[in-house]
C-alpha cells in the first residue's frame, strides 16, 4: 500500500479517456489499495484512477459510511436535477456549480469481480457522477458555472 501523487491542474492525462479493466489482476488490486491510501490522506470524497496517473476505469466513492470501489462503473439510470457545488483534488482551490442528477443508479465490479449496483442521491449521487466523468477526461470545471476561488 502506498500513497500516490495526485495529478493536478492542466496535466493532459486528466483530459484523456480511460480504458476499461479487462481482468482484475494484481496491478488493479494494488491500484485500488493505493487509491484508498491516497484518498484517506487527502481531503476528498472520491478519487478516479486518472487522478493518480492511471488511465483505467476505476473509481472510489466515499459515501460517508464506507468507501466503495468500482471497476468499469456505468451510470445506468439517472433522474432529477440538483445544483451541486463541487471541487476536485486535481483542481485545488477552485469551486463551481454543476447541474447533476438528483438520483443515480450505478453498476460496476468490485475487486472480487462481482457486478454491484448502487443507488445514490444528493451529495453521493454527485460524487458518482464527478468520478465517472473523470474516466472520460471530463473535469467539473468543464461543466461548471460560477467558477471561483475556494473561500
Ligand atoms: Co475530481
First-residue to last-residue Cα separation: 33 Å
Low-confidence stretches: none
Shape descriptor: globular
Radius of gyration: 14 Å
* Quaternary state of the chains: single chain
Bound molecules: cobalt (II) ion
Q: What strand order characterises the main sheet?
A: 1-2-3-6-7
Estimate the helix proportion, in percent.
10-25%
Tally of strands = 8
Overview of this structure, please?
This protein is of the alpha+beta class. Strand 4 and strand 5 form a beta hairpin. 23% of the residues lie in helices and 38% in strands. It contains three helices and eight strands; from the N terminus they run αβββββββααβ. Strands 1-2-3-6-7 form a five-stranded antiparallel beta sheet. Cobalt (II) ion (CO) binds next to helix 2.
Describe how the helices and strands are arranged.
Layout lengths: L25 H16 L4 E3 L9 E5 L4 E13 L2 E7 L2 E10 L2 E7 L5 E7 H14 L4 H4 L1 E5 L2
Antiparallel strand pairs: 1-2, 2-3, 3-6, 4-5, 5-8, 6-7
